[in-house]
Amino acid sequence: MKNKIKPRFFLTRTFVLLIIMLLLSSCLGIMLLLRTRDLYKEQDDAQTDSAVSLAANIVSERINTRIQMLSSITRIHSGAATREPRRVLAELKERLMYYAKTKNDMNYRHLFVADADGEVTNSEDCSYNIGDYDFFRQALRGSATTSSVISDPAGNHRHCGGFIAICVPVHMGAEVIGTLSAVMDLRYAALFLKDINIRYNGAVLFLVDGENTVIANSGVFRDLNMYVSAPTNVFKFMGGILSEQERGELAIQMASAAGDSSVYDYASKSTGRFISYVTLPNTNNWKLIAVSSSDSIRNSQQKLMMTLGTAFVVLALLLMTIILFVYFYAWRSSRLQHISNAMLNATGLHLLTLHPSGLAEDFDGRFAELLGLPPQTRSFSFDEEVSTKGRKMFPHVPFKGGESLRLCCTAPDGRNIYLLIQIAEAAPSGIGQAVALDVTADENLQRRERELAYVNQLTHLPNVESFSIMLKDKIAAAGADYGAACFFIGLDEKDHISEVFGRIVLQKVLIKTASLVAEAAREFGGEAYSLDYGDFVIYCEEDDSRLLHSIVEKLRHTLRAPFKIENHVI
């Protein structure tokens, strides 16, 4: 009996010890799961806030793309400040037929031009007036706008229920002489939310106009035609989400945030729902609203984790299960780390630790190679090894989480590299864990766009747009005793030169003339601009008449001196 009892007692004691250890491990696992669930809930609000900010940027970009396309059409046909407004508008109307493909691709019902009084004449010689529309009055003040309207401005399709109007001013010099507008059916408003989905935390997007009428949503209602037949206030959709008092509070909060592009949040105490919204620029107080949902990938992950936790408690009856779980957890962590690194490599992001002094460390070899440093470099200073241009960034105040820096760096080989650095989190000491992204290509593209918009591509002098902006700024900042002069210079016989010597020679003459004008402007501290094909202006901050007359004589002497172009004396 004793020989039989001892092994049983030994096994029981071992089993009890194992049970105690497994119970402690199970309790710890349950506590960790509960804590993880709380962390998920705490992060849901911040995730929705970030998601609506990103979605708002995408929607704004899509709206701005349409505005920029219309603005580019007006710039092509209304750049001359000396022409008749009616003629400019008439030519712009005639040229609209060349943009028929753009009209169809952008889902516009029609494009039309209105004069400063709001009078519109379409291709069928049918006249109507849009002077009472808010979008027209706002564009006439010089601001491009996007607005939802109740009916078609042309009055041809009032039964369809609603349209969206995009309106840009037509400038002639610094003056607004009319507007160019594009109208699209309200049913196509879903294009603004196309491919924008926040499935991870289940947030639903609503695009509403200044009257809180729903224009489009990200998928709650599949039939988009319902908005055409019955535009609905967004707060009617929130009947089961917010109480009546909360809907009133949210309406007041949204009204007070009109015109502010910041992201605002509202948390419901009765239902636990979280709502974020932001006002979109270049619109008539349109807002993008995100409403959190319980139907999300994030909640599914949370349920999955709770299920795995329960299974772990059951499987924890065996010590080997604990060992396997530790092994599995280590493998999963390694796998996630591998996937994270692969995703970072694919997106071009670089992790690093950034000190307020400018010292960077804990980065990979690809980031070092990007900055022209040896791949084995483990730390460097942005002030020493890699110099920064523009505003001095370092030494910096202690970093804060969410802060971002935009740096123009000069690598040791002389290349300019533009970096966007986002501080993900910061320690109490101010040292930040950051993510860096190479935005050199975007910066170069933006610089090229600025050159195309504000520089004459033939003479390489600032164009009429630059002159208008400069003149407007000077006038706004001028005091009572401010004096300045503008010397307008025109090249005569352009057509004669083109007919006799050819267009190539004419272009070289223009380039030569532009260089003479620019050189003369630099001699007496002026600024040269290219207004039109062969027209120039020099701006000089001087009001002494005798000095101005001497400048005029010098300009005449300089510009009337003959010069050679391809063996032709001009």
Key features?
44% helix; alpha+beta; 570 residues; 23 strands; disordered N terminus
Provide an overview of this structure.
The protein has 570 residues and is an alpha+beta fold. It contains 15 helices and 23 strands. It has a 7-stranded antiparallel beta sheet. Strand 5 (163-172) and strand 6 form a beta hairpin. Helix 1 (2-77) packs antiparallel against helix 8 (297-315), helix 13 (494-501) crosses helix 14 (503-523) and helix 14 runs antiparallel to helix 15. It is globular and about 105 Å long. The termini are far apart. Residues 1-12 and 221-230 have low confidence and may be disordered.
How far is it from the N-terminal to the C-terminal residue, by CA?
128 Å
Gyration radius, to the nearest Å?
33 Å
Q: Give helix % range.
A: 40-55%
Order of strands across the widest beta sheet?
14-13-12-18-17-16-15
Unreliable sequence segments:
1-12, 221-230
Question: Quick one: biggest sheet?
Answer: 7 strands, antiparallel
Mean pLDDT: 77
Record field, number of beta strands? 23
Number of helices: 15
Strand content bin = 15-25%
